[in-house]
């Protein structure tokens, strides 16, 4: 039995990972989460108390971090400010958590000699043209666009420096856009599903031609466990499931799956600096570590995600009004 510390485990992808670990291993999990607006303890309900515990705290607080690192075998670091639109409105928390928080964890990993896996994003590579045959690989130069992605890029570079300079036993993964249960209603797919559920028209930024490379959150979890188990120290692995779709196609599919006319949505003010296209080449992870996605059918995964939101309104309803008020103030 391994003891894992999962930072940000009350958020979307972190909570999916905790459920995945409990279901597929005999590991013990401690979650460290600050419970910002994005953290939700309801996402961790029902976990076995003999294998799971929750600690509320800030990853940028060396006292709490030090105490927890002393008692675990490995750390999986999900905690972050994660939403681009928020980073355009108020960048400061992104620096505090994504940069200083990651630095605090790296220093603890160094002091305690702990294995650390750092969760990052494909957004560190910037964006691609719609007709570019290229996809991101582990050697694509960093070129982040937003306050969010630049702080994630900065955190990745800190991890690389702590591996090389201090011998910290770390790996990094950069994943594409996740969808699935427990995602905050500020994000694209849950926002549109819950809009339709409430009788509101979905909101598409600009023309909606932007492309994202969708992966089910459970496939992200299995990839992270694979890297934790078999990844080479100091290496970066890109995680993706060949799920490129335009935002317009995704909105139209949501409307169709929910029994509405496919064109029943509004175009709204575009995001400043909006990245055009992300695309992941995950050949290294697949060939070197033998990983493959288990949910490659996006339409089936989206239908299951819609069902999850329709049957979990008490989970998402408390955040919906404040989220829509934030967007409405920006004409989105
Ligand atoms: P999220 O916003 O849903 O969850 C973030 C969690 O971190 C929340 O529970 C929050 O309370 C916690 N947190 C924030 N600041 C903290 C702090 N200072 N100390 C402790 N906890 C803190 O985010 P998500 O979408 O689940 O993303 C998780 C990670 O995965 C992030 O590192 C993100 O960059 C990365 N990622 C996300 C995606 C995606 O599609 N959402 C894709 C690739 C990578
Ligand atoms: O690529 C990985 C990244 O994916 C992660 O690093 C981020 O943490 C995660 O939030 C996500 O970033 P995006 O900015 O791509 O996700 P978001 O859900 O905010 O938006 C997806 C696309 O949909 C993007 O092109 C903007 C557009 N959009 C978004 C919202 C909220 C709309 O058209 N309408 C909307 O209402």
From TrEMBL:
Cofactor(s) in the UniProt record: NAD(+)
Domain of life: Bacteria
NAD(P)-binding domain location: 5-300
Pfam families assigned to the protein according to its UniProt record, in alphabetical order: GDP_Man_Dehyd (PF16363)
InterPro entries linked: dTDP_Gluc_deHydtase (IPR005888), NAD(P)-bd_dom (IPR016040), NAD(P)-bd_dom_sf (IPR036291)
Keywords assigned by UniProt, alphabetized: Lyase, NAD
Key word Iron present: no
Classification via SUPFAM superfamilies: NAD(P)-binding Rossmann-fold domains (SSF51735)
Chemical reaction(s) catalysed: dTDP-alpha-D-glucose = dTDP-4-dehydro-6-deoxy-alpha-D-glucose + H2O
Enzyme class: lyase
Entry EC no(s): 4.2.1.46
Family to which the UniProt record says this protein belongs: Belongs to the NAD(P)-dependent epimerase/dehydratase family. dTDP-glucose dehydratase subfamily.
Protein name listed in UniProt: dTDP-glucose 4,6-dehydratase
Species assigned in the record: Microbacterium awajiense
